[in-house]
UniProtKB/TrEMBL annotation:
Family according to the record: Belongs to the bacterial secretin family.
Top-level taxon of origin: Bacteria
Type II/III secretion system secretin-like domain segment(s): 367-524
Protein name: Type II/III secretion system protein
InterPro entries: GspD/PilQ, NolW-like, NolW-like_sf, Pilus_4_PilQ, T2SS/T3SS_dom, Type_IV_pilus_biogenesis
Domain called NolW-like: residue spans: 176-266
Gene3D superfamilies reported in the protein's UniProt record: 3.30.1370.120, 3.30.1370.130
Keyword line: Cell outer membrane, Membrane, Signal, Transport
Cleaved signal peptide residues: none
GO cellular component terms attached to this protein's record: cell outer membrane
Keyword field contains Ribonucleoprotein: no
Location(s), subcellular: Cell outer membrane; Membrane
One GO term (biological process): protein secretion
Length: 549
């Protein structure tokens, strides 16, 4: 009886599972998945005299008026010795066209038109009487030579009056506004405003920027840009623009600032830099057939693409451990080693696009690393703003010795693996990605050393492409070939003439190592956009229940 009791107690202890707090698990998962947000767009009204947006200022030059075509319907008219005014009115009535004829136009005309295009008949009649026309809205105004001379005189007086008005405006006092620049690069905004005023933006000295795009404070730059129509100053301390311009130009400048100084989107970049053999890389890519399923917000649809591992369903549960299968993935187009000369220009680049869930990718890479088939060199996670470069770099400084007039100097050269990414948000769905990969390898072999110093083999791959939000890009093309030829033998017996081969062994290997880089860009929502989306359920694998986020 005692033994049975102890067995039951032991069994109960073995079956007891550790309990977890659903509340803590919920917040732990949210903390792991939180990447931040992009800044909100705030509507700020700039105080100007006229509230309507104006981006153009009258320069004193009239815009050319486009020539409006005349009617072309067939016209038949047969008159003899008739007043020219009456003939023109008859033609206008036939075309249902408004016409204005000055009283000083006199004379008679005899015409016979039979199914003649209206515009040809009208122009022929005007030329035969030294007349011309112009459009005044929807009205054809017929003019004589005297009318044209008077019109030219009026236009000359009008141009003179406009020139005088412009000269008076140049003497008008300048208004001053101070506008704080929140998001955009203040030097770029200053240059754009000067160009809008008809000037040429010039910079004296160099302007360096930090990672956020802000100008460094210890550089010498020109904070003032002048034109004949105003001035634009930069106050570095408050990151503000001081505008001096007339009323019309001031309105244009303030509206330009409101358009250009908008909060940029932020992009979260998750990358995995993996070292694998050529065979493992191919197998890894071929396993990425998938099935996409979606059960969010009451909808349900699915599609199959690529290939899955044999004997398994390509789909994974929507609410599983991690993000699971919420997207499509296509077979990895893993190519052969790039041809010589292609690597530096990016022509030998192999890449794959797909909306692979990051947890699936991470799980598969971690499993392969556990088996020793790959080596995850780095897995950086970084957030950057639109059109600003983000980079990650790892490596070492390699010492080398140089001599100058007999003096020995030890210097260092970087040997790093560097990944540079510059994202640009096209819209809420697509991004343009500029990617540069540099990989340096130190070659310590005696055959490649120069005066005892090792050489550094540099490789580089670059590309520009358009990718969907949350899609994964896979970049390859950085390969390394390793050749080995070794002989092993049993001591003494391997040297026996004629029979030594029985106790020897030769091994040769030719391995190709590949650097694979997985990059997944995610456009971060603003707080408002994030809260508008339906909440996702967090599945607790231990308790077997879902907790709403």
């Amino acid at each position: 009886m005692i033994a049975v009791t102890m067995l039951l107690v032991g069994t109960g202890c073995l079956d007891k599972k550790p309990t977890t707090d659903p509340f803590m698990e919920k917040w732990k998962k949210m903390a792991q998945e939180s990447r931040g947000y992009s800044p909100e767009l705030t509507q700020e009204k700039i105080d100007v005299d006229q509230p309507d947006p104006v981006l153009e200022v009258f320069s004193g030059e009239e815009k050319p008026v486009s020539v409006r075509p005349l009617p072309t319907m067939p016209t038949t008219l047969d008159v003899h010795d008739t007043e020219i005014r009456a003939v023109l009115q008859a033609l206008a009535k036939a075309a249902r066209q408004n016409i204005l004829i000055n009283t000083n136009i006199k004379g008679t005309a005899t015409v016979r038109f039979h199914k003649t295009p209206w515009d040809e008949a009208f122009n022929a009649l005007l030329k035969s009487h030294a007349l011309t026309y112009e459009w005044e809205g929807d009205i054809i105004r017929v003019m004589s030579i005297e009318d044209m001379k008077k019109q030219l005189e009026i236009e000359a007086l009008r141009a003179k009056s406009t020139s005088q008005d412009m000269a008076i405006k140049k003497l008008a006092p300048l208004k001053t506004r101070v506008i704080k620049v929140k998001y955009a690069n203040i030097w770029d905004i200053q240059g754009s405003l000067i160009s809008a005023l008809g000037g040429e933006s010039k910079k004296s000295g160099s302007i360096t920027e930090d990672a956020s795009g802000a100008a460094a404070s210890n550089v010498s730059v020109s904070t003032e840009q002048k034109t004949d129509r105003g001035n634009v100053f930069v106050d570095v301390h408050s990151n503000s623009l001081i505008l001096q311009a007339r009323s019309e130009d001031m309105e244009m400048l303030t509206n330009l600032i409101a358009i250009l100084d908008r909060p940029p989107k932020q992009i979260h970049l998750k990358a995995y830099i993996v070292e694998a053999t050529k065979t493992t890389g191919r197998e890894l890519g071929m396993q990425w057939g998938g099935k996409w399923s979606n059960n969010l917000s009451g909808s349900s649809d699915s599609a199959t693409i690529g290939s899955a591992k044999g004997g398994e369903d390509g789909a994974t549960a929507l609410f599983g451990d991690g993000k699971s299968g919420q997207g499509m993935i296509s077979n990895f187009p893993f190519g052969s080693i790039a041809a010589p000369g292609m690597g530096t220009n990016g022509l030998g680049l192999n890449f794959m696009l797909g909306n692979s869930a990051s947890d699936i990718l991470e799980a598969q890479l971690t499993a392969l690393e556990t088996k020793g088939e790959i080596n995850i060199l780095s897995s950086p996670s970084i957030t950057t703003m639109d059109n600003l470069m983000a980079f990650t770099e790892s490596g070492a400084k390699v010492p080398y010795v140089s001599y100058d007039d007999g003096d020995k100097t030890v210097e260092f050269e970087d040997a790093v693996l560097r990944l540079e990414i510059t994202p640009h948000v096209i819209d809420s769905t697509y991004l343009k990605m500029k990617i540069l990969v540099k990989k340096d390898e130190v070659d310590f072999s005696e055959a490649t050393k120069v005066e005892g110093n090792p050489t550094i083999v540099k490789k580089q791959t670059s590309t520009n492409l358009i990718v969907r939000n949350n899609e994964t890009i896979v970049i390859s093309g950085l390969t390394k070939q390793t050749l080995s030829d070794a002989t092993s033998q049993v001591p003494g017996l391997g040297d026996v003439p004629g029979l030594g081969w029985l106790f020897k062994g030769n091994s040769k290997s030719d391995e190709m190592e590949e650097i694979l880089i997985f990059v997944t860009p995610t456009i971060l929502d603003t707080h408002t956009e994030a809260f508008r989306k339906p909440p996702l359920a967090v599945h607790d694998a231990t308790l077997g229940q879902q907790v709403a986020q």
